[in-house]
Amino acid sequence: FEPNQRAMIAWDGTEEVLLLSTDISxxxxxxxxxxLPLRSEPEVKKxxxxxxxxATELINMSLQAALRKKNGSRSALxxxxxxxxxxxxxxIGAHDISVTHLLDAGKFVDWVRQYLDSLGIEGDIVSDxxxxxxxxxxxxxxxxxxxxxxxxxxxxxxxxxxxYRFKTDHLFYPLKITSTVEGATSIELLVLTPWLLRKFPxxxxxxxxxxxxxxxxxxxxxxxxxxxxxxxxxxxxxMKLRIWEITGDLKSFDKDLIxxxx
Length: 262
Description:
Layout: E1 4-11, E2 15-24, E3 30-38, E4 43-46, H1 49-71, E5 84-92, E6 95-102, H2 108-118, H3 128-139, E7 144-152, E8 157-158, E9 162-167, E10 171-173, E11 184-193, E12 209-210, E13 215-218, H4 219-225, H5 227-232, E14 238-249, E15 257-259
Parallel strand pairs: 1-11
Antiparallel strand pairs: 1-2, 2-8, 2-9, 3-7, 4-9, 5-6, 6-7, 10-15, 11-14, 12-14, 13-14
């Protein structure tokens, strides 16, 4: 069960930094495989939960200042094989993360199963449903997949945030892959871009709730939020920061979130 997902996305038009954390639980103690499909090889590192707090703090401060200017109110906002290759493998806290590159589409999932078995993962952790979704991503041209194995129990826990940096010509957040998980979810995305986005060819924009008017962020603010996002967007004098909320049954997500400026 994945009742909550929280992420922050910084995108400059050619490259994205994705900071991702989820709440997760199961009906009994078990190993769980989470999969992140990507079109290019990512750099992976431990993220910082404080990034979410600092970004939200700036949003609240900006909106409260605008509200006070408007009406004087001080109200606050409630807010191993030939089918693939492993290019990165590391344990980060509770995460056992592997970045894999697709070489043979027809044999890739079987190769993944053998690779996870070599790590000592008990049982067949790649379900037939997950295989179907992964095959769908492969058919759509995805050649990079992050496999993250975590051990969970019946109590909901918040996973340590993991940061991914990868090249992409559009803002991207994977949703279709979550259709293998049971139940409803609430996804909170903090989105930071030099421009507002106008084209959403994947998930319909009607399913994205803008929780507040976008705020302007300068380089000083960005340096306070996160040094890697600052490095990504250092060429821009001003960025737009906002919170998107996406809710619904996980099995209802048959398309990913994709955003373009034009």
